[in-house]
């Protein structure tokens, strides 16, 4: 009999370790749960404070959203006013009135951009608060599971004899087993909940990073908007200085600009045709390297993070009544490096001093790119350049070299020409991320 009892005493509990180990949590829950309850009770005031903070943040977000909507309505009204005035007869008074509308619109654009940034920052604060709450909840869940696993391990070391002796009768023993079975399910649910919490936390962190990236992008656009506002004001001052509000002087100025535009386009077209003929006749052999053949894929000549102020044939082009916009204006600080959009040969590197400076590069297969408002030129005609190679510095701010008479802010004027005809640059450039 003694041997049998000794043998039984050495038998370990083997089936469903989690089931039996979890049973001890039921036994010890009388001690563990009240402590957790006290912990939760102590955190109630903190939870209420966090919830109140989130409520306040969400209210501020709603207020910013409403403000942005109101500003957008005002901006839309100015857009309509500008579109209407662009159809009016070109004259000094209508031009000044148009400039004033653009300045007012630009002020609203800046205010809207500032509210968008403030809204994004509030959303970041909201996410950071939620992330902190989730991290705290995960820590509590981990503590509970750690304690549970530790107690379950201790219980797994007990023998059948110890378990039997530990209960007054079989009814208590089977009641304990039922609790263990329920707790096993609860343990699985707790683990699943912890996985869900971690997944939610990861999603919130990704969202937070996206919001932070968006803030940086919106700040860059805001900087560009402010630069354009200063440009609009400078353009208005220059126009008033040149014309003294005299209609005859204004019309003379307009005609001068039109003639310069015609002359520039003619020069570009002629030299571009000559370059294409020379490339076809292999006159450029030995000068460089590869040229484009077939479908073209270009790279951005400057960083597009500041946004596009005016696209190809855009309706709100400031000088639309004077001539069509044949390219795309990419906002960029004065003096930003310009990279060649693709490998090719420099056809023109026009230095007009305080006039309109530009560079034309022929890439082969009838494709060429033009870079306007260049404040510094670093290449020469017939020079071979590779994609991304710095060819000069951007300009566009009134009063700077290379800008010419008319510009409303620092930017690069970028054109894509196919067989001498301007085309939309966005067809050839990668999407802005």
UniProtKB/TrEMBL annotation:
It comes from the Bacteria. Residues 54-144 form a coiled coil. InterPro entries: Cell_wall_metabolism_enzyme (IPR050570), Dup_hybrid_motif (IPR011055), M23ase_b-sheet_dom (IPR016047). Residues 208-228 have a biased composition (Basic and acidic residues). GO terms for molecular function: metalloendopeptidase activity. Residues 205-228 are annotated as: Disordered. The keyword Signal applies. Keywords: Coiled coil, Signal. Residues 324-425 form the M23ase beta-sheet core domain. PANTHER family: L-ALA--D-GLU ENDOPEPTIDASE (PTHR21666:SF289), PEPTIDASE-RELATED (PTHR21666). This is M23ase beta-sheet core domain-containing protein. It comes from Candidatus Kerfeldbacteria bacterium CG_4_10_14_0_8_um_filter_42_10.
């Amino acid at each position: 009999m003694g041997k049998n009892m000794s043998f039984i005493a050495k038998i370990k509990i083997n089936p469903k370790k989690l089931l039996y180990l979890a049973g001890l949590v039921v036994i010890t829950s009388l001690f563990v749960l009240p402590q957790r309850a006290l912990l939760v009770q102590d955190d109630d005031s903190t939870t209420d404070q966090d919830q109140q903070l989130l409520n306040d943040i969400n209210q501020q977000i709603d207020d910013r959203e409403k403000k942005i909507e109101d500003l957008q309505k005002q901006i839309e009204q100015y857009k309509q006013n500008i579109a209407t005035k662009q159809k009016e007869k070109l004259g000094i008074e209508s031009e000044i009135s148009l400039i004033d509308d653009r300045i007012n619109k630009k002020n609203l654009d800046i205010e809207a951009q500032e509210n968008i940034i403030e809204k994004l920052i509030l959303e970041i604060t909201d996410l950071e608060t939620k992330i902190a709450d989730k991290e705290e909840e995960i820590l509590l869940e981990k503590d509970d599971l750690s304690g549970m696993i530790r107690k379950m391990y201790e219980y797994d070391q007990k023998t059948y004899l110890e378990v039997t002796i530990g209960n007054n009768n079989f009814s208590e023993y089977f009641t304990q087993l039922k609790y263990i079975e329920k707790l096993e399910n609860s343990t699985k649910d707790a683990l699943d909940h912890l996985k869900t919490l971690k997944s939610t936390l990861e999603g919130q962190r990704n969202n937070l990073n996206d919001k932070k990236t968006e803030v940086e992008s919106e700040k860059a656009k805001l900087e560009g908007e402010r630069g354009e506002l200063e440009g609009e004001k400078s353009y208005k001052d220059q126009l008033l200085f040149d014309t003294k509000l005299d209609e005859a002087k204004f019309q003379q100025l307009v005609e001068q600009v039109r003639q310069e535009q015609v002359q520039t386009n003619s020069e570009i077209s002629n030299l571009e045709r000559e370059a294409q003929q020379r490339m076809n006749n292999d006159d450029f052999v030995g000068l460089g390297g590869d040229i484009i053949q077939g479908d073209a894929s270009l790279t951005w000549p400057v960083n597009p993070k500041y946004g596009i102020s005016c696209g190809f044939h855009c309706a709100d082009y400031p000088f639309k009544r004077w001539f069509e916009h044949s390219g795309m204006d990419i906002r960029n600080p004065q003096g930003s490096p310009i990279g060649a959009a693709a490998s090719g040969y420099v056809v023109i590197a026009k230095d007009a001093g305080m006039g309109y400076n530009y560079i034309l590069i022929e890439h082969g297969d009838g494709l060429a790119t033009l870079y306007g408002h260049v404040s510094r030129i670093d290449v020469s005609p017939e020079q071979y350049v590779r994609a991304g190679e710095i060819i000069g510095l951007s300009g566009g701010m009134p009063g700077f070299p290379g800008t010419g008479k008319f510009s409303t802010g620092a930017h690069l004027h970028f054109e894509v020409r196919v067989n001498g005809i301007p085309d939309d640059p966005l067809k050839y450039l990668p999407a802005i991320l």
